[in-house]
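Render this sequence as a predicted structure.
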Amino acid sequence: MNHSVDTGWFLFLVMQQTAPIGVFDSGYGGLTVLKEIVTALPEYDYCYLGDNARAPYGPRSFDTVYHYTLEAVQWFFAQGCALVVLACNTASAKALRTIQQKDLPRIAPDKRVLGVIRPTTEIIGQFSQTGHIGILGTNGTVTSNSYPIEIAKFYPQLKVYQEACPMWVPLIENGEYNQAGADYFVQKHLDHLLGQSPDIDAILLACTHYPLLMDKIRQFLPKQVQVIAQGEIVAKSLATYLQRHLAIAEKCSKGGQIRFCTTDDAANFDHQAAIFFGKGVTSEQVDLIHS
């Protein structure tokens, strides 16, 4: 028996069976989550996809967000990914449950799709002393009521107040997040949120774009109010998930490489993505429908 041939074939099979961890967002915001995931788990390979051609998802219907997200998930599966993280609150709120319960058993029972809402709601109560939590998100996330519903499962005693901020994502994606023009919209929505309860002492940024507004947000908040971004929370949750689900972890390749993809213009994506990811990226344009 030629052991060298057998070993080579075995290695080929192993290589064929592993693929990057997929990270999805409707646009750029998920890069703030990917940045923290890569920091926590630098050994893995990642494939990031931004559906920039159809962003933003926030104002779209449940059905539209579900279909767009499912197309993205199927694209990741076609790349060989066994694990996909929806680093998008709107997609997590409007599409994740249906994909997990209806689609995965039918199209990919051996693959997994995770979101950003569950990891956050599992620990959100640890950030509040008063039991009053504020949620800032897109129209889609807020109207879904996903956060109050999920938080109630873990912390039924918490009082949750929500505020939709429809102008924040456009401000961020148009480079106005650190300009004086953003002040009005940031202060307006913070005042609306705090007006619901003066006892709010922790505010969750339930949109992965919003960390870019962190300095502005803190500028208009009382010092005792804590502002929570999701990136580090999701990264820690993913690390725990991989430790507990070795069969999935073994299907995720390890090489420290990142592939960046967008459904829109790659040059424009690269320019904007550097702001969210914290360093330069080189992307490729992909077609979700005909890939």
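Summary. Residues 1-7, 9-15 have pLDDT under 50 and may be disordered. The radius of gyration is 20 Å.
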